[in-house]
Amino acid sequence: MIISVASGKGGTGKTTIAVNLALALAGDQENIIHFLDCDVEEPNAHLFLKPLIKKRESIEIPIPKIDGQKCNYCGRCAQICVYNAIAVTKHKVLVFPGLCHGCGACTLFCPPKAIKEEGREIGILEEGKSGSISFIGGRLNVGEAMAPTIIRKIKKKSIEKHKSRKNEDVKIRNQEIILIDAPPGTSCPVIESVKGSNYTILVTEPTPFGLHDLILAVEVLQKLQIPYGVVLNKCDIGNHQVEEYCKENDIPILLSLPLDKEIAIAYSKGIPIVSLDHSYKQKFVQLFQNIIKQFKIVYNRS
């Protein structure tokens, strides 16, 4: 099962929920947990999971390189580039690497075949283990804007590992769970992260900003036709408008967590909530059971 954890805005506790859910489920030896940190612009799940990184690889995108001897300056490459990464003058072709998405259209449609491609690093991908949890994460280089490229690589790597397990005929005793920590917001990196999920947890807080951005996130998931539910963090602050919105729109509140000084202190030290008290572990196990229940309801309806 693939469960993504998202939020309409940053600072709601999205990574906290994702990490603690992973640790709670990993405590059951019947579960096989894969954690994908797709928040590649500001990854911080490793601060809590503390994975032992065993492999790092560079992520590159192909950038066009013009062969001046072959180019006839027809301008076809600039016409075909929807990202305006190429400009053609009378005797020169200008390439803007920061705008290039590496789609390869310019190379494909160049009449004199004057374009070759060379790789440009935009970030790194890391693989490791945190206890029994398999960890894959990525990090976008400072100044780069191609987060979806790294997110696709992370998800592809996870799929490859899953297929490898099947090919090796590894017996899965109960269920294999992929947890995706998505970036905050509702832009392209978020859509790339949650796409293909069986269920998405939306983490929010009971504030006007929390409600506003929750509504945006709900609209995105409705478009993607992904079942979803809400985790209400810091549930004892603000007002009850988030709860009223969820009730009016038949959105399940899967878990409510209070604003707790003990949790905040542990968070600042990189200590997961489930390590504080056994009751928190039970709450996250119950969160997963609520997800399974809601997923079955939606599946039966469809």
Q: Summed up, what is this model?
A:
This protein is 37% helix and 27% strand.
Tell me what you see in this structure:
The protein has ten helices and eleven strands. The chain is α/β, with parallel strands linked by helices and 302 residues long. It folds into two domains: 2-59 and 128-301, Rossmann fold (3-Layer(aba) Sandwich); 68-113, Alpha-Beta Plaits (2-Layer Sandwich), CATH 3.30.70. α1 (14-26) crosses α10 and α5 (147-167) packs parallel to α6 (188-194). It is elongated. Mean pLDDT is 90; it is low at 169-173.
Contiguous helical run count: 10
Domain tally: 2
Q: Say what the CATH topology of the largest domain is.
A: Rossmann fold
Residue windows where pLDDT falls under 50 for at least 5 positions: 169-173
Order of helices and strands, N to C? EHEHEHEEHEEHEHEHEHEHH
The CATH architecture of the largest domain can be named as 3-Layer(aba) Sandwich
- Which band does the percent of strand residues land in? 25-35%
> How large is the radius of gyration?
22 Å
Distance separating the two termini: 18 Å
Oligomer: single chain
Class from secondary-structure proportions: alpha/beta
Indicate the percent of residues in helices. Answer: 25-40%
CATH class of the largest domain: Alpha Beta
The chain-level mean pLDDT equals 90
Please report the total strand number as a whole number: 11
CATH superfamily of the largest domain: P-loop containing nucleotide triphosphate hydrolases
Shape: elongated
> What can be said about the biggest beta sheet?
9 strands, mixed
